[in-house]
Amino acid sequence: MDRWQYLLVLAACLAVTAPLEVFGAGVYRQPARTVKSVLPVAAVFLLWDEVAIAAHVWTYNRGYISGLHIPFRVPIEEMLFFVVIPLCALLTYSAVSAILDRVNRR
After folding, report:
1. Are 43 and 72 in contact (CB under 8 A)?
2. Residue 2, pLDDT above cutoff 70
3. In sequence order, what E strands does 1-106 have?
4. Integer angstrom CA distances of residue 11 from 2, 39, 57, 83
5. pLDDT by residue (tens digit) across 80-94?
6. Which positions make up the signal peptide (predicted)?
7. Domain that holds residue 70
8. Whether the Cβ atoms of residue 91 and residue 22 lie closer than 8 Å to each other
């Protein structure tokens, strides 16, 4: 079970923040905008991780990852982290902004 922990935490983050989509214009309903926001930053950090792994500055505990890797020796969980966490942040920001707008209009 330990080797799935990273993926389970990412899934839990999505499960907790996904319902926030109902509060505003949404993140999932604006896929082009979401991709433009998340992918450039994810690409930079994936490259950063690869450099750190190659230089033996950074590593992952094999006991907590699935063992699946994308090119450049980066665990699949790390690539998903760079997509899931910003997505959750965008969902949270969008929901809080929508709620505050509603409250301030009163």
Report:
1. no
2. yes
3. 69-70, 74-75
4. 15, 19, 27, 12
5. 999 999 999 999 999
6. none
7. 2-105
8. no
**Reduced to 3 states, what is the DSSP secondary structure of residue 74?**
strand
Q: How far is CA 88 from CA 22, 60, 73, in A?
A: 14, 23, 25
pLDDT band at 52 (very low <50, low <70, confident <90, very high): very high
Contact present, 102 and 43 (Cβ < 8 Å): no
Q: Which of 88, 75, 78, 71 is nearest to 34 (CA)?
A: 88
pTM of the entire structure?
0.85
Tell me the mean pLDDT in the region 27-31: 89
Q: Please count the other Cβ atoms lying within 10 Å of the Cβ belonging to residue 6.
A: 20
Instruction: Give the number of domains in the chain.
Output: 1
Instruction: Judge contact between 88 and 17, C-beta under 8 A.
Output: yes
> Is the CB of residue 88 less than 8 Å from the CB of residue 34?
no
Number of CB atoms found within 10 A of residue 73's CB: 12
